[in-house]
Structures are given as structure tokens and as C-alpha cells.
Amino acid sequence: MDELKNNAPKLSEITKENPFGTPNHYFDDFSARLQVRMEAEAAPSVPRRSGIIHLLKPALGLAASFALIMMLVYVPLRIFTPDKINQVAEVTDTTDTNFLNIIEKIDEATFVALLNDSESENDLTDDDLALYVSANFSDYELFENLTSN
Amino acid sequence: MSDNDQHIIADLKDENKRNLAFHMLVKTYQERLYWHIRKMVLNHDDADDVLQNTFMKVWRNIDTFREESSLFTWLYRIATNESITFLNSKKKKNLLPLNDESEYLLENLMSDPYFEGDRIQMKLQEAIVRLPEKQRLVFNMKYFDEMKYDDMAEILNTSVGALKASYHHAVKKVEDYLKNNE
Asked: Which of A20, A25, A31, A38 is the best substitution to test chain B (most B C-beta atoms within 10 A)?
């Protein structure tokens, strides 16, 4: 004590007392609270859910991820690609396939005959041409074309 | 080792008496360990957490107690380690430098509703908080608990000479703080 007085006079002036307090009955209750915690830790933890769902969970997750990625790629493509391109592609594909099917089914003689018929159809006579012009153009339009040429 | 301690240890090794013996051990040492921990962490709630952690560790490791040291020394060592672990975890959580917990401890002290000291006691605690961890531990054990250096050496696993030096430095720093902050 004398040593402290010599080395640390300020410190030795302070009354040596415990400045801390506790809630009322803290030490009376402590043992019971500790017991509760020990029992809680000793209790078996809740078993994990097992069964088919638990086994399939990773696979289902993977499948859902793929579906989501497909949706994210496919849906915007469907929305933002012009419809006509798709339709024309479809129509062209269908028409070509049908045409090839028909050609494969007919024999060579019939095919040549059809070819000749189609060529003869293209040979327009003057009468056919006059009929077409009178049906599709007015006199005024015809006159205008003639004067401009 | 006291007769009571020997009785507790013997019963702790008996499967049928273990629970009752542990209850006895808690009742015997809870206050002494609490005050030791409280002086380290300062706040009551933190001290309560650390005291519970200490006894949980004692319960889980009761089979490892080899009686090479006294029951009192073993318990104090666990309580000290738990206090240091607790403070380190708080430092990590609050992103404080590992060698400086004074900021956290000061806040802890100010916010503790169970601090009953006067202004000068608060100043003393502020001075103690600013000590390095080892010196703080040594100062509290020697100044407040008036523990023998031999017992402290066994608990802290350090030489008596090193402890005397630590205490000497701690007293000097506390004195300087009190002088400069009158």
C-alpha cells in the first residue's frame, strides 16, 4: 500500500471499491437460466426433411434454372423479331414442301404436259392484253401514260 | 485445493451425481467469475453472456480437467479466455483494430445502467480501459482482486516477473492518466 502511495499518489487516493452493480437477484437466477440454456443445447436439433423432395431438390432447381434461362432468351426473341419474317419463312417452307411432294407423285409425261400448258398460258394474245388493260386501268390513266411516254 | 472443491470434482466424475455437482460448482464460483469477467468487459449484459459461455465450456470439457491445477485456477483461466475471445469478436464486428478495444469498452461503460461508481471511479475505469489487454487483466486481478502473483501466473500462464513488470507499467499509466485528466 505504501509502495502504491509512493509510486501512484493519485491512484492511492481513490477508494478501492467495486463500482459495478447487477440487476436484483441476478445471482439467485443465474443457475436456473444456465440450466435452461444447457437443456436447449442438449435437445436434439430438428431433423432435416428427408424423402423424395429432398433428393430431387437439386435436380428440380437445375431444371427450373434452365426453364428460366429459356424463357429469358426465347420470349424476347419472339416478341422483338418481326412476325412477317417468321410467317414468310413458315409459308415458304410449307409451299416448297408441298410443291416437291406433288412433283414427286406425278410421272414424267404428265409433268412435261403441265409445263407446256403453263408456257402456253403465258403467251398472251392482243385481245387478252386489251381485256386486261381495260379492266384494270381507266381511260384517263391510259391517256396520261401515253402522253408522258 | 479446498475440501469443497475436491468433493465437487469427485462428484463431477460420477455420472449419477454430475448434474448436482455442476450446480454446486456454479453456485460456488458464479460471483467470483462474474466480477472477474465484468472488470474485463465492463457491461453487465456482456458479462452475463461471457459467464454463461464460461460455464457451458466448463460443462462440455469437464472430462478434460486433469487436476494438475486447482479448480479455481482452471475456471479463472476459462473465464479469462472467454472474455478475451468475446472482446476480440466485438472488435471484429465493429471493425476496430485488434490491439485497441478501448473505444468499444468506453461506449460499453457509458451505456451500462448498472455502473454505480462516482465521477472519480468513472475516471479510473477510463484509465484502465486505455491499458493494453494484458496489463488491464493484470491490473484488475492485482489492484481490485488482490490476487497473489503466483496464482495469477498459473491462471495467465506467465512468469511472476513478467506479471510484476506488467502491473508496474499499468499503475504508472493509470497514474499518468489521472494526473493529466484532473
From this structure: A20
Q: Does A29 touch chain B (CB under 8 A)?
A: no
Interface-testing mutation among A3, A17, A34, with chain B (most B C-beta atoms within 10 A): A34
Please, are residues B159 and B153 in contact by the beta-carbon 8 Å criterion? Answer: yes
In degrees and rounded to multiples of 5, residue B115 shows phi and psi of -85, 120
- Supply the mean pLDDT for chain B: 90
Which domains can be identified in chain B, with CATH numbers? Answer: 1-97 (1.10.1740.10), 117-182 (1.10.10.10)
Read off the pTM. 0.66
| Interchain proximity B116–A11, CB inside 8 Å | no
Report domain extents, chain A: 2-42, 52-148
Torsion of CA A105, A107, A110, A113, to 10 degrees: 110
B3-61: per-residue pLDDT in tens?
A: 788 888 888 888 889 899 999 999 999 999 999 999 999 999 999 999 999 999 999 99
